[in-house]
Design brief:
97 residues, alpha+beta, four-stranded antiparallel beta sheet, 4 strands, 22% strand
């Protein structure tokens, strides 16, 4: 993640978070992951077609408590760091026309 994107993410999280204490251990020791994680969506049958890019992926950043390991994810789209992902081809479910 670029430094500007990280700053934008941190500003977004700080503007939305009511408390900075970890909900598990009540400390305030956090780390934000640099690499982007993605939550991949499949079809109703649980099938995922990674090669075709038919299903959406939600880009996320992990915020991790360095004391106890509690982890939460923040949508990089909602935070304004990443653009809204688009399918590379129309999605067509099996068994439909």
């Amino acid at each position: 993640m670029k430094a500007d994107d990280l700053e934008a993410l941190l500003a977004f999280v700080e503007s939305k978070q009511k408390t900075v204490d970890c909900p598990r251990c009540h400390t305030n020791h956090w780390s934000v992951t640099g690499p982007v994680h993605a939550l991949v969506a499949g079809d109703d049958g649980g099938r995922i077609d990674f090669a075709a890019g038919a299903y959406g992926a939600l880009p996320l950043a992990a915020i991790i408590c360095t004391t106890c390991g509690y982890t939460e994810f923040v949508s990089l789209v909602v935070a304004g760091v990443e653009k809204r992902p688009q399918a590379t081809r129309p999605i067509r479910r099996r068994g439909t026309r």
